[in-house]
Amino acid sequence: MVLARSQKCDRMRSSISAELDGELSEFEAIRLRGHLRVCASCQEFKVDAEKFATTLRSAPLEPLTRSIAVPSRRRRAMHLRVPVAAAVAVSMIAAGGLFEALHPSSVISESQARGTALPNNRSDYRSFARRQQEANFKLLFARRAELAASRIPRRSGFQNP
């Protein structure tokens, strides 16, 4: 039980710090006030933290004697993205080659059996486009008929929206 109370106090102390920075939500502030009513050590911590934060914020800024250079995280992350993307591309190509090696005729024969092979010349393309357009029209007419069959008949006068 002592360990659980200590963990709770640690969480509340981080909430005290967030409250001093103005980053505490309303719900967390309510939980913090409830905990501070019953925990004397956290009350003392809050008083000390408030004094420390006030002292730090009221102190004058110290001038820097030399410049500070902070490395960019974005450059490091971008540095890793390129090799990872290349590795993924190579693995996808290898997986495709392995699939084709294991099933050399399945991909080609299925597309030819369905009649969806790519057209070789302009006349093949036109006939393919015409067949595709006819299939699209058939699907459209079927959907319209289905919609008309399921539509609720409307009558004049008051209607529910």
Describe this structure as you would to a colleague.
The protein is mainly alpha-helical. The protein has helices at residues 2-20, 26-38, 40-58, 73-102, 106-114, 122-150. α1 packs across α2 and α1 (2-20) runs parallel beside α3 (40-58). The longest helix has 30 residues, at 73-102. The chain starts with a helix and ends in an 11-residue tail after the last helix. The model has no long low-confidence stretch (mean pLDDT 79).
How much helix, percentage-wise, in residues? Answer: over 70%
By DSSP (H or I, 4+ residues per run), the number of helices equals 6
Structural class assignment: mainly alpha
Cα end-to-end separation: 60 Å
Quaternary: single chain
SSE order, one letter for each helix or strand = HHHHHH
**Sheet with the most strands, sense and barrel status:** none
Work out the strand percent.
Answer: under 5%
Overall geometry comes to elongated
| Overall mean confidence score, pLDDT | 79
Query: How many β strands by DSSP?
Result: 0
Radius of gyration in whole Å, from Cα? 35 Å
Low-confidence runs: none
Write the topology of this structure.
Blueprint (H helix, E strand, L loop, with lengths): L1 H19 L5 H13 L1 H19 L14 H30 L3 H9 L7 H29 L11
Entry summary:
The protein is mainly alpha-helical and 161 residues long. The chain has helices spanning 2-20, 26-38, 40-58, 73-102, 106-114, 122-150. The longest helix is centred in the middle third of the chain and has 30 residues, at 73-102.
